Amino acid sequence: MSETRKLPVGREAIDEKGWWKAHRFLVLRRLSQAVFLGLFMLGPWFGIWWVKGNLSASMTFNFLPLTDPFITVQMLAARHWPETTALIGAVIVAVAYALIGGRVYCSWVCPINPVTDGAHWLHDKLGMQKGWQPKRATRYWVMAMVLAVSALGGTVAWELVNPISMLHRGLIFGMGAAWSFVAAVFLFDLFVSRRGWCGHLCPVGAFYGLLGARSILRVSATKRADCDDCMDCFAVCPEMHVITPALRGTEEETPLILSADCTNCGRCVDVCAPDVFRFTTRFDETPAPARAARRKPKHQSTASRAA
Amino acid sequence: MSAATKRNPSAMDRRRFLQDAARVAAGCAVAGMALTKFATDARALPAQAIRPPGALPEEDFLAACLRCGLCVRDCPYDTLKLAELGLDGPATGTPFFTARDIPCEMCEDIPCVAACPSGALDKSLTNIDDADMGLAVLIDEERCLNALGLRCDVCYRVCPLIDEAITLELSHNQRSGAHAIFMPVVHSDACTGCGKCEKSCVLPNESAIKVLPVRLATAKAADHYKLGWEDREPLLDELIDLPDRLPGPGTDNLVAPGGFYDTMPDPSMEGGFNPGFNLPGTGGASQ
Ligand code: SF4
Ligand code: SF4
Ligand code: SF4
Ligand code: SF4
Ligand code: SF4
Question: Degrees (nearest 5) of the Cα angle A203, A115, A239?
Answer without folding.
Answer: 55
